[in-house]
Amino acid sequence: MRLIDRIKGRREGITEHPLQFVFVVTYGRSGSTLLQGLLNTLPRVLVRGENGLYVLPIYRACAQAMAFRERHKRHRPGQVTSAFYGLRSVRRPRFVRATRTLVTETLLGPVPRDQLDVIGFKEVRWDEIRPEETEGFFGFMDSAFPGARYILNQRAHDRVAASGFWQDHDTDQVFAALERVEDIQAYLRRSRPGRILDTTYEQITSADEAVSRAELRAIAEFVVGSCDDILLDTLQETLRGAYGPHAFGASHGRRERRERRARRAARARDRS
Questions:
Q1: The pTM is what?
Q2: Sheet containing strand 118-123, strands side by side
Q3: Fold type of domain 8-54+115-245
Q4: To bridge 22 with a disulfide, which of 6, 120, 121, 215 should be the other Cys (CB 3.0-4.6 Å)?
């Protein structure tokens, strides 16, 4: 909606239809790009891919600014002679509103707002949220995105750790990252039980069609409120496609191939 239309709408008492937000909380090579594709199959839903979790440093900036404001409020920041003049105007609601605007406009891109009901993103870097930040961060998310829902996606750790995404990482580091994300997922289950959905790659892609269809139906009902057989069939069509830069398994064994090449090169050097 153009700015002039928004102004006219406010004058006439017309309000924009509020967008709903959904975020996928998971880790790399969990099947999140496939899940993203399934979500984008749903009507009036737009779920973007990874963005480096840029909302985390925004939250940290807000927390830092609020702590600074509290620390220096005794220095008369309302007076023009104070070194902290203007600090009173640094307020959390302004960070919240700016974050909502920034994320909404970034997610929408060129897509008209009135074509969508639900927007969000999937991200694999939730492990970067420090344990002591968890409650504050998701409180900030609730303020910026009222009623935000979370899809908590998991996949068997051994399959995840064997994928190309993690093969340049130390094994202990990989499992620590996976466990940290699952700690966050557990926190969201406890603190926001009515706004989470658990999914697993294994159930979504199960060879048992009844299991897979049940998982697809649950995803649709969670995000858009219903799922008829036509939508379910459409989701199954999406499921049959390949999502992501590589189909799952295409990068499997990358480390082993590198090691074989290194051994061949070493043998060639020894012979020479």
A1: 0.81
A2: 45-48, 118-123, 20-25, 149-154, 196-200
A3: Rossmann fold (3.40.50)
A4: 120
